[in-house]
Amino acid sequence: MKKPILVVSTGAGISAESGITTFRDAGGLWENYPVMEVASADGFRRNPELVHDFYNKRRRDLLKAKPNSAHLALVDLERDYDVYVITQNVDDLHERAGSEHVLHLHGELMKIRSVTNPDYVESLDIEHLETTPATRGKNGDYMRPHIVFFQEPVPNIEKAIELVQRADIFVVIGTSLVVYPAAGLIQCVRPGVPVYYIDPNPADTSSVSGVHVIRATATEGMRRLAEILEDGRSKQG
Ligand code: APR
């Protein structure tokens, strides 16, 4: 029998319990780094060395992190649902947890791409995670972090919208819903599709009908969501 489609949109909050700093919480990344210097197209043009160093540090931090029980709970849901993860995160924790379908909206920390040809992408190997503006790919091109900087288009957003429009259930975990177009996905569900928003300090979603807010951390919220979905399935018989 065809499984219902469960689409989940995750932000930095799902990786917080893996020890990866979020952006806008107290002590967040943007408190310690000038976002437009280290994560924008203009910043990269102005000082590529600073940007490479910023992402080198985030890769070093990622090496110390591992998926938490929220990432793993999403994998468990694949038993009863076709689960599609859309993530704003550039870490690879969903992949390492075992999620089958992961769509990155803002790029991938463990990859680099050609400065001149955005379709030429290479995975970094664990021994060579540090990059500089002089880093070249196997094809000889100068390479850059495979990150969608501010001021750059989000190539995967159309695919993400299509997924959300097919969802039978939509889940949002650990995002402040301030960065578009990702934040707009919550408006793309079909009428009547239940939306669950897991966040200990959720943004106001009162303008969107049918949102069930679970005010909790990702790990606790996923425990509660699993129970809610189980109840729903047992009632359906
Ligand atoms: N569990 C779940 N959510 C959490 C937890 C936790 N343990 N801790 C914090 N959060 C929530 C916060 O309440 C907040 O709503 O995670 C969210 C983090 O918000 P941001 O730091 O703004 O991160 P995010 O929404 O993913 O940022 C979006 O902004 O800077 C860009 O490209 C960057 O992808 C990022 C985008």
- What is the CATH architecture annotation of the largest domain? 3-Layer(aba) Sandwich
> Which strands sit side by side, in order, in the main sheet?
3-2-1-7-8-9
Order of helices and strands: EHHHHHHEHEEEEHEEEH
CATH topology of the largest domain: Rossmann fold
β-strand percent reads 15-25%
Shape category: elongated
How far apart, in Å, are the first and last alpha carbons?
14 Å
Please identify the top-level CATH class of the largest domain: Alpha Beta
What percent of residues adopt helix (DSSP H or I)?
Answer: 25-40%
For the largest beta-sheet, the strand count, sense and barrel status come to: 6 strands, parallel
- Work out the radius of gyration: 18 Å
Bound molecules: adenosine-5-diphosphoribose
Number of strands: 9
Total domain modules: 2
Query: Helix count?
Result: 9
How would you classify the helix and strand content by structural class? alpha/beta
The CATH superfamily of the largest domain appears as TPP-binding domain
